[in-house]
Amino acid sequence: MSVTATNSDILIDKFGRTVNYLRISVTDRCDFRCIYCMEEEMNFVPRAQLLTLEELSLIGRAFVELGVSKIRVTGGEPLVRRNVLQLFQNLGQLPGLEELVTTTNGSQLPLLAADLKAAGVDRINISDLSKVLAGIDAAQAAGFEKIKINAVILKNRNHNEIVDLVRFAISKGLDITFIEEMPLGHVGTHDRAEAYYSSDAIRRDLEAIYTLIPTTESTGGPARYYKLTDHSDTRIGFISPHSHNFCETCNRVRLTCEGRLLLCLGQEHSVDLRHVIRSHPGDMDRLKQAIRAAMDIKPKGHEFDLSAKPVIFRHMNSTGG
Ligand code: SAM
Ligand code: SF4
């Protein structure tokens, strides 16, 4: 962990934000169909168009050599990609990578938690609760600390479960982050504007029972954290793309499983890195140059408007949420 990028070798966008965090979506497929994320029937990227695990590792290495210190492997469901452990092992060995983390629905953790830990994965975020209790237990048994549950809250669907989720997190010593639903892709199951349940509403629900103390703690992302007076282990986070825009401090970019480098979650600005590495195999300088140049088109921020028609057609599973 001794390599530090020199100043000319770090990624800074034209608004002065340093990009030191890469999220890699290794697949857009998933064994679940969370209604805020996907439709029941989806068209997935044909396998031939996916970046190979070697290509993903190479791009990861290029980013780390350009000063990126944190990589999150996500999806779709990252742990359903065949042989994905190989990618974790490759990334886990990169000098200069300080944090290797993953977001998973947890379904494969009973099988893979111990191997992920051995590959050098530092932390796990687990997003779906009902089917994954065994996965959470497996991750804890493998020695993961600071496991975080992500919960997207939808009004009249699960907003009455907020306190139960926090009780569960406390009982297991987990952190929990509540996320406002983002309008990515069309979903037929609900109207996203009607389902909007703000972070402030969630906080009010919790404050009926708990005392929440704001902290300045950060996990390097947009979540704002609170502690509970009587339960010092559990942090409550809020990711509020609608009510508390976080674009000013954005430090991340996303790589889709097809090799498209997305510069913003809520905009379509992107660069085709698959084209770069396939047209010039092994040319690390060209790859890095393309990544550096991409910083110039990182947009200022997202502009989600729940009352208008969705403008982003890609779903969260292909975004690398
Ligand atoms: N399958 C893994 C999982 O569910 O944790 C990783 C990928 S998933 C797309 C990453 C995160 O995005 C999850 O925490 C999920 O709850 C969240 N998510 C999915 N769709 C969302 C949406 N429309 N708005 C906000 N968060 C969303
Ligand atoms: Fe799958 Fe994660 Fe999307 Fe749920 S949120 S459908 S688990 S990719």
What does this structure look like?
By secondary structure, the protein is an alpha/beta fold. 25% of the residues lie in helices and 20% in strands. The chain has eight helices and 14 strands. The chain has helices at 53-65, 84-92, 109-119, 133-141, 162-172, 199-207, 273-279, 284-294, and strands spanning 11-12, 18-19, 21-25, 70-74, 99-104, 123-126, 148-153, 175-180, 212-214, 224-228, 231-239, 252-255, 260-262, 270-272. The strands form two sheets. The protein has a twelve-stranded mixed beta sheet. Strand 10 and strand 11 form a beta hairpin. The protein starts with 10 loop residues before the first strand and ends in a 27-residue tail after the last helix. 41% of the residues are buried. The model has no long low-confidence stretch (mean pLDDT 92). The structure holds S-adenosylmethionine (SAM) and iron/sulfur cluster.
SSE inventory with pairings:
Blueprint: E1 11-12, E2 18-19, E3 21-25, H1 53-65, E4 70-74, H2 84-92, E5 99-104, H3 109-119, E6 123-126, H4 133-141, E7 148-153, H5 162-172, E8 175-180, H6 199-207, E9 212-214, E10 224-228, E11 231-239, E12 252-255, E13 260-262, E14 270-272, H7 273-279, H8 284-294
Parallel strand pairs: 3-4, 3-12, 4-5, 5-6, 6-7, 7-8, 8-11
Antiparallel strand pairs: 1-2, 9-10, 10-11, 12-13, 13-14
The protein binds S-adenosylmethionine (SAM) and iron/sulfur cluster (SF4).
